[in-house]
Design brief:
Distance between the termini of chain B: 53 Å
Number of helices of chain B: 10
Strand content of chain B: under 5%
Largest interface: A-B, 25 and 19 residues
Number of strands of chain B: 0
CATH superfamily of chain A: P-loop containing nucleotide triphosphate hydrolases
Strand content of chain A: 25-35%
Strand order of the largest sheet of chain A: 6-7-8-3-9-10
Largest sheet of chain B: none
Helix content of chain B: over 70%
Number of domains of chain B: 2
CATH architecture of chain A: 3-Layer(aba) Sandwich
Oligomer: heterodimer
Radius of gyration of chain A: 17 Å
CATH class of chain A: Alpha Beta
Order of helices and strands of chain A: EEEHEEHEHHEHEHEE
Shape of chain B: globular
Helix content of chain A: 25-40%
Number of domains of chain A: 1
CATH topology of chain A: Rossmann fold
Structural class of chain A: alpha/beta
Order of helices and strands of chain B: HHHHHHHHHH
Structural class of chain B: mainly alpha
Number of helices of chain A: 6
């Protein structure tokens, strides 16, 4: 069991978005959807403090502006849709070796850690990127279309793995998603971005 | 032994051959003749002017004039560093970082070499100070320009990697560490190559000059080694300062990568 602190955005503004207020309870997943270019990714970048923005973000009692940048990002971890790899082999990107069960849950074997980074496919990069971030044990997660490059079967497998981690660790999570079915499956709440406005949608229980 | 006098008509002979080369490239449509001639003309004019300035400087032997000359050289070198960068830091930072790091390293090394090692009387004697500083600044300029250009250009190309490393909670120094090492390497490589090849592949220019002027090879070699070390120190510390300050400027106080502080390349 990790932290059980909520994530709260207070008056966050970036690009076309302004004055965004929202809160996510520990272990809950807030889904964000909207047309491409509506600013979903930039909102996550603001929460991770990767771009100058207005407003404040709170993790429990801790304010973003009062925390050094890298300490904040180590706790409020953003996983981009496209992950980047800079060392020669996969395993060199992991601070500590991930457990075999974790690798298997995402469809890999311990051998994967010895793979050359250059031979990874887009989908493999995405899954390994998620594992790399999650194995750092942050205190909140920001996921930018975490299953965008995966086929349906793998997508559901990864989704189930993520939801299980988020619930057991109690990480408040912002999850940018396109797929309405996925939102209905994982979301505790759902916001749509439309013309710079954030509107909360009821989760349709079908 | 005296140096054999060289007169202007003998130089004209050499110039004629450069013109012949330009004519050849023009005839073969290689498109280099114009810039070749312009560069050759610049050499003649710039060196002739500098010759006049140096003669006046040597005659006067006043500290003020030496300092003024040194400052002029520094500012021109700073401008040159800025001009050689594809994506440079905006708001005067490219000029400021380049000039300041060259000032700190070249001037310190030059003054130390003059006062502690060579020890001419007075220490700022222009015959020693100006050529020494010139060689130092020229090489430091190349190192600083190469390193800053590599730093900003690679940071721009690899912004995805840098930001991904930031997202994983790495401090900015770690996120740009590889790129800093590469920039440092490209700044120092020319000097390391020159030291490795000195005397084997190439005869260094200053040593050649001294030998032509009648200095015993043994003494010329000692001066050359001293100059090589001084240049390496100047280039090394200059590049170090420029890469440190330049990479710091790529991030803000929240450790965000700020590529909006770079200019877009001129086509």
């Amino acid at each position: 069991m990790g932290s059980t602190e909520p994530l709260r955005l207070a008056g966050v503004g970036i690009g076309a978005l302004s004055d965004i207020d929202l809160g996510i309870a520990p272990g809950e997943i807030g889904c964000i959807s909207g047309a491409s270019g509506s600013g979903k990714s930039r909102l996550l970048r603001a929460v991770a403090d990767l771009e100058p923005h207005a407003g404040e973000v709170w993790l429990g009692e801790q304010a973003q502006s009062q925390t050094p940048g890298h300490v904040w990002r180590r706790q409020v971890m953003l996983v981009p849709a496209e992950s980047h790899w800079w060392e020669e082999r996969v395993g060199e990107h992991f601070a500590k070796r991930p457990a075999e069960s974790e690798l298997e849950a995402l469809g890999f074997t311990p051998d994967t850690l010895e793979w050359q980074v250059s031979r990874l496919s887009t989908g493999e990069k995405q899954r390994l990127g998620l594992l790399r971030a999650v194995s750092l044990e942050p205190r909140a997660l920001l996921l930018d279309e975490p299953t965008a490059n995966l086929d349906d079967a793998t997508s559901e497998r990864v989704e189930a793995w993520l939801v299980a981690r988020i619930r057991s660790r109690g990480w408040p999570t912002l999850w940018v998603a396109h797929d309405r079915d996925q939102i209905a499956r994982v979301g505790s709440s759902h916001w749509r971005i439309e013309q710079g406005w954030l509107t909360q949608e009821s989760l349709a229980w079908m | 032994m005296d140096v054999i006098e060289l007169s202007w008509w003998q130089l004209a002979l050499a110039a004629l051959m450069v013109v012949a080369l330009a004519a050849c490239t023009a005839a073969m449509r290689l498109g280099m003749s114009r810039s070749l001639l312009v560069a050759a003309l610049r050499t003649v004019i710039q060196l002739a002017l500098v010759g006049l300035v140096l003669e006046a400087l040597f005659a006067a032997e006043r500290l003020v004039w030496v300092v003024l000359m040194a400052l002029a050289m520094l500012l021109i070198a700073g401008r040159e560093v800025m001009a050689r960068q594809k994506r440079r830091l905006l708001g005067g930072w490219a000029f400021g970082i380049g000039t300041l790091s060259m000032f700190l390293s070249s001037f310190t090394v030059a003054v130390l070499t003059l006062t502690v090692i060579i020890g001419p009387e007075p220490w700022y004697r222009p015959q020693y100070a100006i050529p020494l500083l010139g060689m130092l600044l020229g090489n430091t300029m190349t190192g600083v320009a190469l390193a800053l250009d590599r730093l900003t250009d690679t940071a721009w190309r690899q912004r995805g990697v840098i930001e991904n490393r930031l997202m994983l909670g790495q401090p900015w120094q770690e996120a740009i560490g590889d790129i800093r090492r590469e920039a440092m390497r490209s700044g120092l490589m020319p000097m390391i190559n020159a030291m490795a090849a000195a005397g084997v592949v190439s005869l260094p220019g200053m040593m050649t000059g001294q030998i032509l002027a009648g200095t015993a090879p043994g003494l010329a070699v000692k001066y050359q080694i001293l100059i090589m070390f001084a240049i390496t120190l100047g280039t090394g510390f200059g590049t170090l300062a420029a890469v440190s300050a330049g990479s710091r400027r790529l991030f803000d106080s929240r450790e965000r990568l700020r590529l909006d502080r770079l200019s877009s390349p001129r086509s």
